[in-house]
Amino acid sequence: MQSYPNHWEADVVLTDGGTAHLRPITPDDADLLREFHSRLSPETIYYRFFAPYPKLSDRDVTRFTSVDYEDRVALVATISDSLVAVVRYDKVAPEEAEVAFVVEDGHQGRGLASVLLEHIGAAARERGVRRFIADVLPENRRMINVFREAGYTAQQTFDEGVIRLTLDLQPTDDSTEVMRAREQRAESRSIARLLFPRSVAVIGASRTAHTIGQTALRNLLTGEFQGPVYPVHPEAKAVVGVRAYPSVLDIPDEVDLAVVAVRAEAVAEVVDQCAEKGVHGLVVVSSGFGEIGPEGRARQDELVRTARAAGMRVVGPNCLGIANSDPAVSLNATLSPDLPPHGPIGFFSQSGALGRAILQRVAERGMGLSTFVSAGNRADVSGNDLVQYWQEDPATEVVLQYLESLGNPRKFVRLARRLAKQKPVVAVRSGGSAQTTPTGHAAGGLALPDYAVTSLFQQAGVVRVDDITQMFDAAQVFAYQPLPDGPRVGVIGNSDSLELLVKDAAVRQGLKPHEPVNLGPQATAEDFDRALEAMLAAEDVHSVVVVFVPALQPIGDDVARVLRARAKDSGKPIVTTYLARQGLPEVLRQVGANGETLRGSVPSYPAPEDAVRALAHATRYAQWRNRKPGRHPELPDIDRARARSTISRALAKSQGSGQDIAWFGGERRYDEETAVSSEDARDLLASYGIAAYPDLPVSSADEAVVAAGELGYPVVVKADAPDLRVRAGGTFVRADLRTPEDVRSAYLSLHDRFGAEAELVVQRMAAPGVPTVVRAGDNQSFGSVVSFGLADVTAELLDDRAFRLAPLTDMDAADLIHAVRAAPLLFGLPAGATSLAEQPNVEALEELLIRVSRLVEAFPEIGYVDLDPVLVNATGAHVLGARMWLREAPEVRPDAGPRRLRGVTF
Q1: ∠ CA 184-185-189 to the nearest 5 degrees?
Q2: What is the DSSP string of 301-316?
Q3: Can you name the residues that pair with 200 across neighbouring β-strands?
Q4: Using an 8 Å Cβ cutoff, are 513 and 566 in contact?
Q5: Per-residue pLDDT tens over the stretch 420-458
Q6: Distance CA 259, CA 197 (A)
Q7: Spatial separation of the C-alpha atoms in residues 487 and 490, rounded to whole Å
Q8: CA quadruple 140, 146, 147, 151: dihedral sign
Q9: Largest CA distance in the chain
Q10: What's the pTM value of the predicted model, to 2 decimals?
Q11: From residue 85, how far is each of 32, 67, 164, 268 by CA, in Å?
């Protein structure tokens, strides 16, 4: 019976793009282990056992396969039901264990040892192991390099002909970076195997016109795929004039990619045959899977399990397909007959239904694609995989993504941030008002309001747009024009009305337009040329918008030629609204007659507002890319051991009753019974250098007077209950109480108003300032998230909040404060102030945000922290109210731990 954590099982991508399944060993693996050992070469056996060991005894097999998953743990890697690698550790001291590997000869060099080390290390840390010891023969250079290149802190000694390596298993920046780099290379390679096949089989190729199978076959053939195409049909000798085969197993040559177009019920048999054939990847265009409900979802999970176990990746099911316009490949494995020409744009679409319309729209825009993937139900290959591939793909300069959900939002943000530092990433995420995942897709409900998702995308440098039209508008600038160096926009045109529209639109988009240069309705191409030359030469002009409408007699494409000529020589972007004729002038198209990308092409838009909006996207992206990356400052007064002790104590008190709190936006649901005590909350905050003002609960006017004397005057008396500010305005607190009579009167007044509805507390008064709210917690999709806003009724009702992912850099913290609409209140003088010395200390607020972000990132047990209010005045940021909810730590946090593919049910 299984007695190990579920998350110890995982599918992983290897360095050559194939896949393997990792899981703990069990006694049922006895025969697999014997067969595995029998396939090992004498050299590999000698490296593992330091002696000839041609056969495992029954005692050996029992010892190796029977582990307790505590002091003795072993993981195996399997491919197509064959065991291909084993790693194990055995504790030799309370925090120390001996680790050993063996990888089958035919699978060495595929990265199995490295990924097994990551997973066994994570399992060991869960069991209290802090160090690994590995004894390795000096001539076993490959295994020595696995340990040395893992990124862990390591020590090496040599004794009696054996090298002993000691690894500190505490993750470091180096070990994390090594893991991420290997993940990127492996996942990129797995996508490259799909997009660069040497041969393709169409399984389900039909002799009936306009069927899915025949459409897929015809598109491969008419798209001039550069390798052989094999139709698979159980009876036909040929399909559309190409020799057919009864099954993929009957094809005499190797098959790299299989397009599967059979009934859903028959897909499982086809996948088994592809696995036996050694196919590298599957594109499943068939429907009838997760999109139809639980039965289809079970069928979908089985498809992915079988494929990954055999080393295959899956695009789909229920997808449009994949395409690669590289002339050396010319792959059109989609259901769309017409693909845009070769170009610099990579496109990922979850929607198969919209995929064909999207491709048509790209072609109409005169743009070109490098690669296209429609993932459908996205059971395996996702947008994150494509982001990994496009980072290294020299043919892709701009990335477009149409997203309906995010399978691993945390990973998406991390990968997109890294890619966006090199290439623009433009995303449409539909269903922004919904909090659930579309049917058929993997779990990815965001559980955050739509504007919060947008702010997290912005933090990662992702250009999020509202619809497909805006996506292509932005892509035209990114793909064919340089990025602007700043927000100053020059405007040239021959129409006062259009020029004013441009100016107004630029102001609304946050750009800084110059006064338009109006050339008059009779302006010639030469007039436009001179004006453009002067404007592009001006240092205070970062980009140019040109608007043109014809005079009574159209002047042909002369103005368009001027725009193109100037754009070729300019380092500044030019966009235009060109209304001289019906349709786009050929000289403004982005793709030439032979399919080549035309650099310097000037994007033309049907309306000035469209042109300005696209330019604004490019400007904001350029500012994000050019900004300083920010740093994680060293913070004093952080005591992780104290924090851990406080959490353990608080969880023991609550008996594990803590639960996830819905804390996004204004929809906050509190369960006061599961909140930790005020004392524990203050203690946990203090362990990270955050001082929260104590408050004393009182149940009578006399108790209130005594409490005030203990705290010291002046004090406040307030009603302490969630959401009271919204329901009671400012009437739930009595401030600046300086005498016992003041305290007694305040208590009686609040008690008469609220009765038993709210507990009354007494608290020392802070100097006047700007009240704010800081909330943080572990979001089910994105991981640790911090939100910020002002603590007043208007901000609450308008939900004026901003969000960022933890941990925050100093730049993130500053951006988070500036992102709320009410932020100007923090950067002026408060009411009654007479000097700059009384200005709110925003730097202290930034440090508080950083500290809170470090706390929730370090401890996943913290489900939710609510600091309300945080009063920001000249002396600092003062936490006057603090609530906290704990929970049992999740087994696996989003995008945390060793590398793994998005899971299916094992």
Answers
A1: 115
A2: HHHHHHHHHTT-EEE-
A3: 229, 257
A4: no
A5: 999 999 998 765 543 334 444 443 334 577 888 888 888
A6: 12
A7: 10
A8: positive
A9: 101
A10: 0.88
A11: 11, 17, 22, 26
| DSSP structural state of residue 431 | -
Res. 889: pLDDT tops 90: no
**Structure-block tokens of residue 93:** 């001291």
Q: Which of 361, 314, 315 is nearest to 339 (CA)?
A: 361
In this structure, what are the phi and psi dihedrals at residue 524, rounded to the nearest 5 degrees?
A: -100, 175
3-state SS, one letter per residue, for 131-195:
EEEEEECCCCHHHHHHHHCCCCEEEEEEECCEEEEEEECCCCHHHHHHHHHHHHHHHHHHHHHHH
Q: What spatial distance separates the first Cα and last Cα of the chain, rounded to whole Å?
A: 14
| Residue in this structure with the two tokens 């060993």, named with its chain if needed | 25
Beta-bridged to residue 165, according to DSSP, are 134, 156
Crossing angle of the two packed helices 450-459 and 810-819, in degrees rounded to 10: 140
Dihedral sign for Cα 326, 328, 332, 338, please: positive
Task: Give residue-wise pLDDT tens across range 705-757.
Answer: 999 999 999 999 988 766 665 444 556 788 889 999 999 999 998 888 887 77
- How many residues in the chain? 906
- How does pLDDT run across 835-859, given as a tens digit for each residue? 555 789 999 999 999 999 999 999 9
Q: Is the pLDDT of residue 510 over 70?
A: yes
Mean pLDDT for the stretch of residues 160-168: 91
Distance CA(619)–CA(626), nearest Å, equals: 11
Residue that has been written with the tokens 């901003």 in this structure:
802
Tell which residue, 514, 521, 529, has the closest CA to residue 548.
Answer: 521
- Reply yes or no: is the peptide bond before residue 138 cis, omega within 30 of 0: no
d(CA 589, CA 844): 52
* Nearest CA-CA partner of 24 in 171, 126, 142: 126
Domains of the chain: 6-170 (3.40.630.30), 190-477 (3.40.50.720), 481-626 (3.40.50.261), 629-693+767-905 (3.30.470.20), 694-765 (3.30.1490.20)
Q: What is the spatial distance between Cα 396 and Cα 609, in angstroms, rounded to a whole number? A: 28
Report the distance separating Cα 849 and Cα 852, nearest Å: 5
Tokens of 74: 């072993």
DSSP code of 591?
A: B
Count of alpha carbons within 13 angstroms of residue 494, beta-carbon side: 21
Residue 592 CB neighbour total at 10 angstroms: 14
> What whole-number distance in Å separates Cα of residue 544 and Cα of residue 523?
18
- Give percent helix, percent strand, percent coil of the chain, each to the nearest 5: 40, 25, 40
Q: How far apart are CA 731 and CA 780, in angstroms?
A: 35
CB 425 within 8 A of CB 461: yes
| Cα 513 from Cα 17, distance rounded (Å) | 49
CB atoms under 10 Å from CB of 596, counted, come to 12
Cα 134 to Cα 87, 123, 148, 898, distances in angstroms: 11, 17, 11, 20
Closest CA to 365 of 383, 382, 391, 347: 347
* pLDDT band of 277, cuts 50, 70, 90: very high
